[in-house]
Amino acid sequence: MSKELNEQELIQFIVEKSKADAKQIQLVLKYEKAYILKAEQSSKGEVDIDSDDLIDHILSRPDVKLTELAVDTILEAEMAYLMKHGLAGYMD
Q1: Which of 18, 40, 82, 92 could form a disulfide with 88 if both were Cys (CB 3.0 to 4.6 A apart)?
Q2: How remote is the C-alpha of 24 from its chain's centroid?
């Protein structure tokens, strides 16, 4: 992709949408990235991530102090940001 992700802008966008703490958002994004990278390594092509499994994985981390709804809201806000900037989209 030709566009680059501005992480600080992304986090600020998510803070505004979710009202979550920036530190918790960073944790959610860190665990999400690790989960996706692991899925990509075990696959040969596009990766289909089940959002419920991803949320369960993030909530299972001991340092994440959020509800399931809060994690889902963060992930949805992240996707909205990525789609707005042409960095991601949903598969049909």
Answers
A1: 82
A2: 12
